[in-house]
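Lecture 7 notes: from sequence to structure.

We start with a single chain of 394 residues. Read the sequence below before looking at the structure.
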Amino acid sequence: MKLAFSAEDEAFRAEVRSFLAAELPPGLARREAAGFHNKRDTVHPWQQRLYARGWAAPNWPAEFGGAGWSPIQRYIFELECGLANAPEYSLIAMSMAGPVLCRFGSPELQHEFLEPMLKGDCWFCQGFSEPQAGSDLASLRTRAVRDGDEYVITGQKIWTTDAHMADYMICLARTDAEVKPQAGLSMIIMPMDAPGVTVRPIDTIDGDAHVNEVFIEDVRVPVHYLIGEPNSGWTQAKYLLGHERTHNAYLGMLRRYLARIPALIDDELCRGLPAAEAGEYRRRHARLAIDVDALEWSVLRVLAGEEGPALGAAASAISIRGAAYLLRATDLEMAILGPQVVPRFAPDDGTPLVAGAPPAAAGRTTQYLYWWAATIFGGSDEIQRNIIWSTLFR
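Now the structure, written as C-alpha cells:
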C-alpha cells in the first residue's frame, strides 16, 4: 500500500500554494490568524478571486460551477487554505445549501441561486435549530402550510449562524403533522427580507454576535422555493448535515495551530517560561499531532467512500473529534501564553495589546471561547453519538 500523495497531487499542492501566496489579501489572512471573525464585506473580495479562478466551490459538481476536483485535491486545498490563514467564506451557502441544491433542487432553483452563490452575491443561513427542539430535528415545530401558489411559514429558529448577514434561509419546516415526525418535514428557501421575518442577534461569550434568533410570522414564499418533493426534508437535512460534519473536522485549522505552537513555545522560553513547562507543552503538542493524524485518515476515508448508512455515523464521529481537538489546540495556546491572554480583546485586530504582551496573545481568548460552540455545530455531541449508535448498533 502506498501512503504518499502522487506527483500530480504534489503539483496541485504547489499550484494552490502559489495561488494563495499571490491572491490572499495579507490583511484578511492576518485577521484570520488572530482568531477574529470576518464579516461578509471583508471576505467578499476573496470569494470573488476564488470565483475568477474557478475554485469557489471545491465540493460542488463541475457541471454546477464546482472545481471538479478529486476528494484528495479537495482535502489538499482545504489544508493549504488553513495553513495560509485563508478564511472561510459564505460557509452555509457553499458547503451546505449549495450541495443540497445541486443534488435535490429543481433546474429553476439551480439557475436562480447557484451562480450568485459562487460569486458571493447570495448568502444563506441554516434554519434548523429551534428553542423547543434544539438539535433534535424530528421535534421541530415551525410549520409551512400551502395556500395556493405559496407556503405560509410560521415558527421560530435559534442559534442561526449569520442570519443577520444572509439573503436567504434554508428553512426546515413541518408540512405534515399527521405522519411520523421525520416524514412530515420539508426544506424551503425563505428570503430573509420577506415581511414577517425578524432577526435578533445573540451576544456570545467571545464578545461577538455570530448567531441569532429568527422569528417567522406568516411568511409567504412561492411554492417553487420548495427543495425536492414535499415531506422529503429529512432526507435533505441528513445529506446537508453530512457535508457539515465532514467539514467540521477542521483539519486546515488544526494543521495551522499545530504548525505555529512550537514557535509559540520557543518564544515563551525566551520570555522566561521554565524549561519543564515547555517540555510538558511539547508533549501535549505531540499527542495532539498524533490524534490529528488519525483524524486526517478518517476524513480521507470518508471523502473517498461511497454514500451509505455508515457515512452518517462516520461524519458524526469526525465532527465530535474535530471539535474536541480544536479545543485542545486552543487550550494549549492559552496555557503557553498564560496570563498574557487574560484581557478580553475586542473582535477587532486594531485593539492595542496590554503592555508587554506578545502579538500572539491577541485574539487567543476570543478564539478559545468561540470554539466551545464547535461542540454543537450541526448538532450537539450528544446528537452525534445517538446517530452513531442508531446507525451501527440498532
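The first strand starts at residue 124 and ends at 127. Keep this in mind for problem set 3.
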